[in-house]
Design goal:
The chain has two domains: 214 residues, 3-Layer(aba) Sandwich (D-Maltodextrin-Binding Protein, domain 2); 111 residues, D-Maltodextrin-Binding Protein, domain 2, CATH 3.40.190.10. By secondary structure, the protein is an alpha/beta fold. The chain starts with 5 loop residues before the first strand and ends in a 7-residue tail after the last helix. The chain is 40% helix and 17% strand. Strands 1, 2, 3, 4, 5 and 11 form a six-stranded mixed sheet that branches. It holds the Pfam family NMT1.
């Protein structure tokens, strides 16, 4: 899709209808008749971070902000920025590590909008596993040390930023002998990998964590934001885009970010819990009780802000742990586009 492409109501009824709009015939409102900037957005299916985007579509926030989005699934077998390029998408959801590594390698990409202020990951294992867990009194250090020499499932290719963050967490307690296995970015693949014995433990993130535990087949060993600095102190993930697109379409980028924040605000408002839970069920296929648990517990760290102090701590941690080279020139200023009117 070329940079700067615009869709008018008359030529893109199909796109507009995806946003739940009425037909563009006479009497259309000013919002419906305006030109909309088209943005192709890449996301993993069936994961909790999608919900503010789903709500923003449902409530018409993207259209209000002058954009129309087209969602496509993120491939499981490609590192993040490579997936963004291969799918010809303008926007994707990535960890700071993924974008920082890409920037260090010379990729022209920047974060322009925040999303999750922490990495909401848990270590999970089969229900009959004899590995220690925090619920039964083990410390997070004991949980990670017990995984020395084990096979461990991660949701990205080995060598990608998120896997290296996980390795840094293990290294905090002196564990380096871990065999990492890419079980795929969709949480639906983590359970089978554990059930089949492909891995002995794995990372899970919402809604996968809740789905696995509610199934009765798996249990949580540790919630990592309560443990190692790599998860406790470092920023989670946000929205990134090619710098060429950000330079060509600053208003579209700003509109996207504002719409997502409005979606976050809607999700975080307890008065909207019923409709938010319904949207999560429709988007993920989760049972209603699990959706309710996720909505009530997982969205507090969400915001489109990209706090400079936290991201600078994160980048220093990356350099110290090997996610970035020790001499990395990646800084907040080089990583974050702050011209999008967040």
């Amino acid at each position: 899709m070329p940079f700067g492409r615009r869709t008018t109501c008359g030529v893109a009824l199909a796109v507009v209808s995806l946003l739940g709009l009425s037909a563009c015939a006479g009497g259309a409102s000013g919002a419906a008749s305006q030109d909309l900037a088209e943005i192709q957005v890449m996301m993993f299916p069936g994961v909790a971070y999608r919900l503010p985007v789903v709500i923003a579509e449902q409530e018409g926030y993207f259209e209000d902000e002058g954009v129309a989005i087209k969602e496509i699934p993120q491939p499981n077998n490609l590192p993040g920025i490579q997936a963004l390029t291969s799918t010809k998408s303008q926007v994707g959801q990535f960890s700071v590590a993924t974008v920082a590594q890409a920037a260090e390698a010379g990729e022209k990409v920047k974060m322009f909008c925040g999303h999750i202020g922490e990495v909401q990951s848990s270590v999970v294992a089969n229900i009959d596993s004899d590995l220690p867990n925090m619920e039964e009194g083990a410390s997070w250090e004991e949980v990670l040390k017990a995984l020395d020499g084990k096979t461990f499932g991660v949701q990205v290719p080995v060598g990608a930023g998120f896997q290296l963050i996980t390795a840094a967490a293990f290294e905090e307690v002196g564990v380096t002998d871990v065999t990492y296995v890419n079980v795929g970015g969709s949480n639906t693949t983590t359970g089978p990998a554990l059930d089949n014995g492909d891995v002995e433990a794995a990372i899970a993130s919402p809604p996968g964590t809740q789905f696995l535990t509610e199934s009765g087949n798996q249990k949580v060993l540790a919630y990592l934001p309560d443990g190692p600095a790599a998860y406790r102190d470092w920023y989670g993930s946000g929205w990134a885009a090619p710098t060429a697109w950000l330079e060509a379409e600053p208003e579209a980028a700003a509109g996207f970010c504002r719409a997502v924040q409005r979606g976050i605000d809607y999700v975080q408002d307890p008065a909207n819990a019923d409709s938010v839970e319904e949207a999560l069920v429709d988007d993920t296929g989760l049972p209603a009780d699990i959706a309710a648990l996720i909505v009530s517990s997982q969205y507090e760290p969400y915001s489109t802000e990209l706090p400079q102090d936290v991201i600078e701590v994160t980048l220093k941690g990356y350099a110290a742990s090997g996610v970035l080279s020790g001499a990395s020139a990646v800084t907040y200023e080089s990583l974050v586009d702050d011209k999008t009117g967040r």
